[in-house]
Design a protein that fits this description.
6 helices, 4-stranded mixed sheet, 298 residues, alpha+beta, 5-stranded antiparallel sheet, binds uridine-diphosphate-2(N-acetylglucosaminyl) butyric acid, 29% strand, single chain
Length: 298
C-alpha cells in the first residue's frame, strides 16, 4: 500500500506497549515520515486507500483497544518535527518535541510561563491538542500561534486570536499539529526552575508516577456559573470507596483515585471495565456523570 513511497513504515506493530498504560493491541502500520512533504504523501495515500490515520504523541493519555488499529498510526519523531528554537521571548517547538524537555529548556533560558506543565508526559503536539494542564495552568495560556495540516495536506498557521483553549480541549479541527509558538515572559532562571521543581514534587507526592497509567482517567466535572465548584473527579472516586478496586490487571490507584494503574497481563478491556464501573458508581452516588479524559483508539 505504501511500498512506492520512500517513507519508513513498520507493519503489525505492538502499539499498546508503546503507550503509558502498556496495554492494548497492534497497529497495522506505524509510519515515521521524515518531513512535511512525506507526511503529505502519507495522508494522501491513506485518504486514497480509505485507511484511517492516527497521530500518536507520547502515548501518555491514550488507551489502545485490544483489537488494535486497522489503520496507519503516524509518529512525528523525525528531526523535522522534533526541534526547539528560541526567538526573543518565544519558544518555537515542533509537534514531536518532548513537553518535559520544553519546560526545562525554557526554565534554563530564564523564560517564564510553562512551569505549570512540569511533569506532564506529552509531546508538544499532544499537549496543544488536549490543552494539557492541571491545577496550575494549561498549555493554551502561552500559545502565540499553532501551525497545522488539514486532512488534504494543506498547512497553515492559526494565530492566538483564532484559537480557543478550554478545559482539556482546543478549537483546532485540523487532524495534524505541526508546530507551536509559545510566548513567554522574561524571568530569572533559578526562580522559574524552582517553581518547575515545586510543581513536579507536588505531582510526585500526590500521583502514582512510578506506575503504568495514563494520568487522570476522567475530567473534573465542569464548573457552573454562580454555583460552588463541584468536587474533583479524584475526590468523587475516592469518596465512593473505589481506591484499590480492580478488574483483571487494572486497578484504581490507591495514591490518586482518578488514576487507573495497570499490572502485568492487563488488557485494555480491563481498563475500560474499571472505567465503566467507576463511572456508574460515581453516577449513582453523586449524580455526576464523569467524562473520560483518556483518549481511546479506535
Ligand atoms: N483527592 C482526593 N482523593 C484522591 C485524589 C484527589 O480526595 O484520591 C482530592 C485532593 O485532596 C484535592 C482534590 O481531590 O483536594 C484535587 O486533587 P489534585 O490536586 O490531585 O488535582 P486533580 O484535580 O485531581 C488535576 C489534573 C491533573 C493534574 C493535577 C495537578 C484533571 C482531571 N486532573 O488533578 O492532571 O496533574 O490537577 O495539577 O484535570 C491529567 O490530566 O492526566 C492529570 C493527572
Amino acid at each position: 500500500m505504501f511500498d512506492d513511497l520512500n517513507i519508513t513504515i513498520e507493519r503489525d506493530v505492538a502499539l499498546g506497549a508503546m503507550t503509558w498504560y502498556k496495554v492494548g493491541g497492534r497497529a497495522a502500520f506505524l509510519a515515521h515520515p521524515a518531513d512535511v512533504e512525506q507526511l503529505q504523501q502519507l495522508i494522501a495515500r491513506c485518504r486514497q486507500q480509505k485507511l484511517p490515520f492516527y497521530i500518536m504523541g507520547a502515548g501518555a493519555n491514550l488507551l489502545v483497544r485490544d483489537a488494535g488499529i486497522d489503520g496507519c498510526v503516524i509518529r512525528l519523531d523525525a528531526p523535522a518535527f522534533d526541534y526547539l528554537r528560541f526567538e526573543d521571548n518565544r519558544a518555537i517547538a515542533g509537534a514531536g518535541f518532548d513537553l518535559m524537555k520544553l519546560v526545562l529548556a525554557t526554565a534554563r533560558e530564564g523564560l517564564s510561563g510553562l512551569q505549570a506543565l512540569a511533569g506532564i508526559p506529552a509531546t508538544v503536539g499532544g499537549a496543544v491538542r488536549m490543552n494539557a494542564g492541571g491545577a496550575y495552568g494549561d498549555t493554551g495560556s502561552n500559545i502565540r500561534s499553532v501551525r497545522v495540516m488539514s486532512d488534504t495536506g494543506q498547512t497553515y498557521a492559526h494565530d492566538r486570536n483564532e484559537l480557543v483553549f478550554s478545559y482539556r480541549r482546543s478549537n483546532i479541527v485540523e487532524p495534524i499539529i505541526l508546530e507551536a509558538v509559545f510566548e513567554l515572559e522574561p524571568g530569572e532562571a533559578p526562580e522559574v526552575m524552582r517553581r518547575v521543581k515545586e510543581i513536579f514534587l507536588y505531582k510526585r507526592n500526590t500521583q502514582p508516577l512510578g506506575e503504568n497509567s495514563a494520568g487522570c482517567a476522567f475530567k473534573n466535572p465542569p464548573r457552573r456559573e454562580e454555583e460552588p465548584p463541584p468536587p474533583s473527579a479524584g475526590s468523587l472516586i475516592d469518596q465512593a470507596g473505589l481506591k484499590g478496586f480492580c478488574i483483571g490487571g487494572a486497578e484504581v490507584s490507591r495514591k490518586h483515585a482518578n488514576f487507573i494503574v495497570t499490572h502485568d497481563n492487563c488488557k485494555a478491556d480491563d481498563v475500560l471495565a474499571v472505567m465503566e464501573h467507576v463511572r456508574q458508581t460515581v453516577l449513582q452516588r453523586s449524580g455526576l456523570n464523569l467524562q473520560r479524559e483518556v483518549v481511546v483508539w479506535p
